[in-house]
Amino acid sequence: MVLSVGQPIDRYASSCGYCSPPGERSKTDSSRTAAALNALQLSPEVYQKMINRGWRRSGRFCYKPHLRSSCCPLYTIKLDVLSFKPSKHHKKIVNRWNRFIQHGDDASTGKQKGKDNARFDLRSSIHASEFRDGQDQVFAHRFEKYQTGIHHDNTTPQGFRNFLVVTPLHQEHIPYLSPQSNHLPTHYGSYHWCYRLDGKLIAISVIDILPECISSVYFMYDKDYEAYSLGKLSALKENILAHELHTAGVPFLKYLYLGCYYVHSCQKMRYKGEYHPSYLCDPESFEWYPLATCAELLSQHRYACFSRPERSLRGDPGPELVQDFEWSDPQEPEERALEHISVISEVDGSQISVITANACLFLLHRGARSGSCFEHHISALISDLRSYSHSIHEFRDFLYDLITN
Ligand SMILES: [Zn+2]
Q1: What angle do CA 193, 195, 200 make, to 5 degrees?
Q2: 277 preceded by a cis bond (ω within 30 of 0)
Q3: Are the C-beta atoms of residues 76 and 311 closer than 8 Å to each other?
Q4: Which of 116, 152, 163, 230 is the most exposed place for a label (fewest CB within 10 A)?
Q5: Is pTM, for the whole model, over 0.85?
Q6: Residue 35 in contact with residue 11, Cβ under 8 Å?
Q7: CB proximity list for 110: less than 8 A, separation 6 or greater
């Protein structure tokens, strides 16, 4: 069994990039997280459970947005790849790209009108312009070009590494039920899917392959090819890869989690709703609801709760809601949930001792009551290992946040 190891980070608020003009961020810290974690190692199974409860990762950094108190709630969205039907627009994108690769046709000329729908098979069409050439290599300057050209951000090669290369996901063998096809990946984990044209890297898609889905982490492309909608093309390719993995004998892998989140309040991010049938994760029950049935609630509220519509909220989060987020005690988890979490209690050279979270909290509370030095001892270790937690209460709160979220 692969242990998943994480270092706690306190809940925090940050500025938002969805409700400001392009390239700008909100003036106030109006986007809030419910919990965050610096993951040292995650098994694909544990990370799958996390993203099914609204978490995402950026490098090793994992976070779960607090939708109720954020200006632009971020909903996890997944596409059912087995039932996916490409739209006319999607077919056009694939055909245009294939024509460009095979015949050098320019995107701007709009040739071959009307032929895009004739006998279209997404699976064969999507592979038509591909070839595979060995090891993936990522070039930071491509990313810099993308970030400065498209997002107007300044970045560094180190920032690129931390954001898009480093991963906490442990590579685990995919247990195919049938003989594995050569071009399919052998392991769950993080991949860079590189798009090259005549040897030149023109786009990179960062994806995680997990037991139930392909989760797209990030996509970046060369601005020279903007006219070919490479972001949408990559989503179609990832959809086909998920479909192929399922067909090759990974029965539970049936979904594509579209990059990051669905943001209904941001017109630019609504394109994720173009893929049908897709589902949104309910922010309170973590059940999945068809996007089509969520539309009305989303358009009438800032915060939409699909499982309990009466809990939906209109208008920006007021001071009460923000205060509630900042000062509320975290929900106490069930005892059995704590049994699955271990806390490092002692480090002696290369020996690391762990105890269950239950035992840890029990000892901490007993220590606090009797005034023994145990409290001091364990909190010293905790603050060594967990630089963001300085007291028992903070540590307990963090643990509760993490487990109940
Ligand atoms: Zn916002």
Answers
A1: 135
A2: yes
A3: no
A4: 152
A5: no
A6: yes
A7: none
Other Cβ atoms within 10 Å of 379 Cβ, number: 20
Given a cut of 70, the residues of the chain with pLDDT beneath it are: 1, 107-120, 126-157, 180, 327, 345-352, 364-399, 402-403, 405
DSSP string of 173-225?
Answer: E---SSPPPTTS-SEEEEEEEEEEETTEEEEEEEEEE-SSEEEEEEEEE-GGG
**Three-state DSSP state, 11:** coil
Using the mean position of ligand 1's atoms as its centre, give its distance from the Cα of residue 314 in Å. 14
Could you read off the pLDDT of 81-121 as tens digits, one per residue?
A: 999 999 999 999 999 988 888 887 776 554 444 454 556 67
SS3 54: coil
Q: How far is CA 290 from CA 3, 89, 168, 280, in A?
A: 34, 21, 31, 6
Cα of 265 to ligand 1 centre, how many Å? Answer: 8
Quote the DSSP letter at residue 14.
E
> What's the first-to-final CA gap in the chain, in angstroms?
23
Ligand 1 centroid to residue 145 C-alpha, Å = 26
The span from the CA of 280 to the CA of 341, in Å, is 28
Count of residues in the chain = 405
Distance 115 CA to ligand 1 centre (A): 41
Whole-number Å distance, alpha carbon 13 to ligand 1 midpoint, is 12
**Quick check: 206 and 143 in contact, CB under 8 A?**
no
- 322 Cα–ligand 1 center, Å: 14
State the number of CA atoms in the 13 A half-sphere of 137 facing the CB: 9
Question: From ligand 1's centre to the CA of 230, what distance in Å?
Answer: 26
Give SS3 for 77: strand
